[in-house]
Amino acid sequence: MSIRVENIIKRYGAFTALNDVSLTVPTGQLTALLGPSGSGKTTLLRIISGLDHADSGVILFQDEDVTRRAARERDIGFVFQHYALFRHMTVFENIAFGLRVRSTPKPEVRDRVSELLKLVRLEGLGGRYPSELSGGQRQRVALARALAVKPKLLLLDEPFGALDAKVRQELRTWLRKLHEEMHVTTLFVTHDQEEAFEVADQVVVMRQGNVEQIGSPQEVFDHPATPFVLDFLGNVNVFHGRVQSGRAEVGPFTMDIAAYAHADSRTATAYVRPHELEIDRVASPLSLPGRVVQVNPAGAVQKVRVTSDEFGIELSVDLMRDRAMVLALRVGDQVHVRPRTARVFTPDQDYVI
Amino acid sequence: MHPNASRLKRTAVRLNAEEPLWLKAILIVSAVLITTWIIIVPVVYVFVQAMSEGWEALRANLLDDEDTLHAIWLTFTVAPIAVMVNTLCGIAAAWCLTKFQFPGRTLLITMLDLPFAVSPVVAGLCFVLIFGLQGYLGEFLRDHGMKIIFAWPGLVLATTFVTIPFVARELIPLMQALGSDEELAAVSLGASPWQMFWRVTLPNIKWALLFGMIQCNARAIGEFGAVYVVSGHIAGESDTMPLRVEKLYQEYNNPGAFAVAAVLTLIALATLVLKLILEYWSQRSVNAATTEGATP
Q1: How many independent structural domains does chain A possess?
Q2: Which residues contact A66 (CB under 8 A, 6 or more apart)?
Q3: Which residues of A touch B187 (CB under 8 A)?
């Protein structure tokens, strides 16, 4: 079932949580709502679920207007950040809840629950109480409970937010696998860009109640639509400067920018990701001299920080392992840094060099 | 509330261990003396007085006096009605005060405590002013053949007013701590409002609710001041047990007064025992619930 959200506006007093938001979630896909706290992603999820209501706008499930429909009639499964398991019920009864309120025959309930317990790998724990489970187990019970009624739409609110890093990683991979088996249209909220990129087919980046960009993880990462998206997706080197007559002078770098041919000068900001910077021992036309202040061999990429005293800036550079081996950088080395590509944003347009 | 209580107990024990022996001894002895003189002696005295003329006299004082029998019957009618009304109102009040935010919310919570703050006699007088013959609604009620003051509806009203805070005060902090996540989960799973209440909310608050009801009941049975004003003391008609005790005592019928008083005291003791049992049972289920959050 696809979801269409059209022109949703939600205000809490003077605060605008959602400012005219529209988006489409395609059938059977896993979509991430990604954004910092306060961006309105959870509010949007709750409005789609029917647990909250918009001031104006329309929610369509497969061309059917459900804007005025109550949550319990929307055929959804909702997974809460803090699980919200029924504390006085066993795991079995928690999962069976949705079936029980629909007066499902007992044998059917039993079969469906044991099927789900198997799916979330909690066989044999049906008789436990939520308080006797670990965080990861509780989240899996919450997921099984939401899936028990075979919802047409699965909504997850920061599903792994309260778990530690290792369990989070495991559940992420598991959720992706589960989704491939079941193909329920799924929408999940996260503030963790890594999580969104790893799990989702489609990413919706939100900021201050607006959608900044919608696209596949690849698209969003390679072609960030706005400086905010670029900045949010990971640490990035930012240079401020001006563009004029096909030339950009941003920070220490001068670049050709054919797309901007106007004679009048405009302010511009250039963004260069750490892996888009290159380090050399010798100078080249575009390069900037600097001094290595930190070398951090973290995993497959070596993270290097270079400072340029002349411009008073510090750059983050990611080096691939083999390149790092060749350079064999040490703190204090004099090097030359040059951008392979850069994105230049002017107040009303953006260019990739 | 209960885990807090046990934590307090632990702190008390630790502090105690740090005090010098003589101070401990003085504190314990004075505590024992005070409770003995203020609580135990009077309670025992009630039974001693009631029994002073033997079992047969006690039985006669209670069961052969028609007015006393009626007072017992009236109390056991009025109190349950007040408890039921306050249970329903208490749940409703706690629900709307904890699940919703609205202007005047804090004021309403404070207002709930008013019956504890105001003298019951004043409350009774208010009801007389409103419903009495000279009151605002007096003529209307008389013309429609309804009698509130000097009749059982007045007793119910006065008793209910005085016992309003018990259930709500027990529920509000608990429901505030529980939040509404579980209710939202139930709704998202397709539960109707009734199913949500019976299957999720009520099981979560049942111990606190029972606690509140028991306390409310004990207070309702013992209520004197407000009821004194609205009842009109018509023996065999609008006298409740506490009023009957007072009347018998004024008539120098000490054995009769103490017989009814003994019944009231027995009810109080039974309430205590019931509370202890509830505390034991709820502690077991609270223990299960509070381990949540302790495990990661």
Answers
A1: 2
A2: A50, A59, A60, A74
A3: 51, 70-72
